[in-house]
């Protein structure tokens, strides 16, 4: 999987609290995403998890002391501050949030924090009453106003026995926020509608007609667009995927439901990327009860579903940009070119199901991008999130041409 953190330097600061042990999981996740992780711990944090554990996971020396006598000509807090591509505090206590808000620099974490110009992500963890204290909330609001990103704590049973908001967010969510902070926000201000997954057309309460789409391509596009700063709405058929973070998801089942959701959203969007595999036909009638086996053969009358992409193409404004997808098993370019032109798309992503590594269920894809001017752009095998970024890059170029 490609990541915005590949080759980036993350300075992870760990402050004192029971949630400090989760920093091990977060460090592992960041390493898997390709980041170099440099860790600073407050003295109190070392009581909850050892520096040695984090040194093994990060493969770098953990810094704990302002006056460490380990020989180096570098001024440690300045060196780490300059090295950081993203600066993270997780878990963050009320104490460090207060220091950050008011410029107090009296330990290794707070002095490095004062010296960095890197994007900052803070994940608070504390007792509910502490988190809800007006002073803490004012400090958080002050830091947010200065551009600091916060990963909201979760609600649940806390270590002290209380129940409420204050648990450290899931390390996966924190890692996502860090990745987003490392991603250029070149789609800031754009509203993007993405469709993904299959549709299901019911025959009876038990059976339905569908396809093999897993939604992976559309979900990758939605996630990458969100990370790049867009306001993303995802209309999704039934899939076994977690909802992308910070994306508005509209869940549907049938093609008619997808049609209605998309057409309602269309006037609000700058871009539409239609990656869903929508059923072309549905049963003319749906039985109220399960159909029983009565004969060797059974016929089901089918009626055509609305052509959502064609309707989008007919209704789109001049300032809207539309990307369609096609899945073929032969005559890929010819059939896809006809779809691009017939449905008034600005670009189209063409896939051949018979190509190794392409199509449904894979984490990879092989695609050819087609454009209105008659040009095409064949792409080699790559991860779907890498293809997602290329699609978004090309959409951005088309959008800018429209002025």
TrEMBL record:
Keyword field contains Transmembrane helix: no
Catalytic activity: N-[(R)-4-phosphopantothenoyl]-L-cysteine + H(+) = (R)-4'-phosphopantetheine + CO2; (R)-4'-phosphopantothenate + L-cysteine + CTP = N-[(R)-4-phosphopantothenoyl]-L-cysteine + CMP + diphosphate + H(+)
A GO term, aspect molecular function: metal ion binding
Listed pathway(s): Cofactor biosynthesis; coenzyme A biosynthesis; CoA from (R)-pantothenate: step 3/5; Cofactor biosynthesis; coenzyme A biosynthesis; CoA from (R)-pantothenate: step 2/5
Gene3D superfamilies: CoaB-like, Flavin prenyltransferase-like
Annotated Pfam families: DFP, Flavoprotein
SUPFAM superfamilies: CoaB-like, Homo-oligomeric flavin-containing Cys decarboxylases, HFCD
Positions with a binding annotation for CTP: 280, 290, 306-309, 325, 339, 343
Region of interest (Phosphopantothenate--cysteine ligase), ranges: 192-403
Cofactor: FMN; Mg(2+)
Any single biological process term in GO: pantothenate catabolic process
Keywords: Decarboxylase, Flavoprotein, FMN, Ligase, Lyase, Magnesium, Metal-binding, Multifunctional enzyme
Domain DNA/pantothenate metabolism flavoprotein C-terminal: 187-396
InterPro entries xrefs: CoaB-like_sf, CoaBC, DNA/pantothenate-metab_flavo_C, Flavin_trans-like, Flavoprotein
GO (cellular component) term, any one: phosphopantothenoylcysteine decarboxylase complex
Residue numbers spanned by region Phosphopantothenoylcysteine decarboxylase: 1-191
Residues annotated as catalytic: 160 (proton donor)
EC number(s) given by UniProt: 4.1.1.36, 6.3.2.5
Keyword Protease among UniProt keywords: no
Flavoprotein domain mapped to chain residues: 8-178
Cofactor note: Binds 1 FMN per subunit.
Job description of the protein: Catalyzes two steps in the biosynthesis of coenzyme A. In the first step cysteine is conjugated to 4'-phosphopantothenate to form 4-phosphopantothenoylcysteine, in the latter compound is decarboxylated to form 4'-phosphopantotheine. Catalyzes two sequential steps in the biosynthesis of coenzyme A. In the first step cysteine is conjugated to 4'-phosphopantothenate to form 4-phosphopantothenoylcysteine. In the second step the latter compound is decarboxylated to form 4'-phosphopantotheine.
Family label: In the N-terminal section; belongs to the HFCD (homo-oligomeric flavin containing Cys decarboxylase) superfamily. In the C-terminal section; belongs to the PPC synthetase family.
Protein name as annotated: Coenzyme A biosynthesis bifunctional protein CoaBC
